[in-house]
Amino acid sequence: MKLNNFLIKKFIISLFISNLTCLLVFFIFSIIGNLGENFSFFRIFTISTINSMQLIFYIPTFILFLTIFILWYLLNIKNEIVIIRQFLSKAKILFILLIFIISFTIIETRKDFFIDNLEKIKMSLLDKEKNFNYKLIVLKEQNTEKYFLFTDIDLENKTFKNFNFYEIVNDKIKNSIYAEKQSLASNSIYLSEYYMLNNNIINKNEYLKTIKLNNLIKLLKNNNHTHIIETKKESMNIKIYQKLFHFLLLNCLIILILFNHSTLFKKDNSIKILVICIFFIIYSYSLFTINLQTNNLIFIFIGTFFIFLHLIRNFFYE
Question: How many CB atoms lie within 10 A of CB 265?
Fold first, then answer.
């Protein structure tokens, strides 16, 4: 039991070091990028901190790998890893760290939720700091995002100078609209002359077009200049299950690679271990980034099976 607690304690220390290191690096780059903005120092500091946290949530699997690598390095300094491997099998090590493996896997699968909420906080801070002359409304539905951008709004006469509309389906622009002559109603936008981009073809239209948007006037009257409305259904489809299972295997594989007998001694090539683990991480991220038109689920299944084979190899053979 003492050995279990010792391993968990070392893991938590390594997790703190890895998160703090990444936050500091991301924070420095973010604050340099924001210094040119006309913000107060407190606002720059806060926004840079949020940006750093967002970047952390973009790469949770890499953070876990960095944590495990730091843990491996700390244990290797005093040859403590040899003692741990004498008394704890790889299966027991995985079981001890299981709560962390599952936590990072869930964060990886649901990272968009954390990133979007941090983005909302950041946009509310930007709205308070800047005096924008536009309103942006983002409507997120299942596999679809709609962007409504208004400039120079005159709510008294229910008009505005320019209007841009973008509809994105499965990360691709389906159509967009630009208009200069329009009017507003409580839940509608009326366009009398506008340009529409559809299938890479721009057409000028002069017939009346109506775009529905619930609580439109109420949203435009709000002091916030950016509104993100989530209406998409949160359902666990087969691709989410695949991603959950894949990164669960990947996180276990990273631990097994670093706790194999072949990596127990400081004289071993740590660069080689780094390269192998980073390859698997980049491979996994690429697997879920590439969107094939057909057989996408089969493509992911083959990639997951590839990780599974390496997991079996590292578990039973060293």
Answer: 11
Domain that holds residue 181: 135-230
Alpha carbon of residue 215 to chain centroid: 29
Q: What separation in angstroms does the CA of 62 have from each of 11, 106, 163, 278?
A: 15, 14, 41, 8
How many distinct structural domains can be found in the chain?
2
Residues ≥6 apart with Cβ < 8 Å to 274: 69
Let me know: does 227 contact 123? Beta carbons within 8 Å.
no
pLDDT 10s digits, 67-79: 999 998 888 888 7
Q: Is 116 inside a domain boundary?
A: no
Domain contains 97: yes
- Of 86, 80, 60, 75, residue with least CA distance to 14: 75
Residues 6+ apart with CB under 8 A from 310: 253, 280
165 with 218, same domain: the answer is: yes
| Tens-digit pLDDT profile for residues 269-310 | 677 788 889 999 999 998 888 766 567 778 888 889 999 998
Among candidates 59, 33, 73, 52, which has minimal Cα distance to 284? 59
Helix (H, G, I), strand (E, B) or coil at 144: strand
Choice among 24-38, 74-88, 114-128 with the minimum mean pLDDT = 114-128
Cβ neighbours of residue 163 closer than 8 Å, sequence gap 6 or more: 148, 149, 150, 151, 177, 178, 179, 180, 182, 189, 191, 194
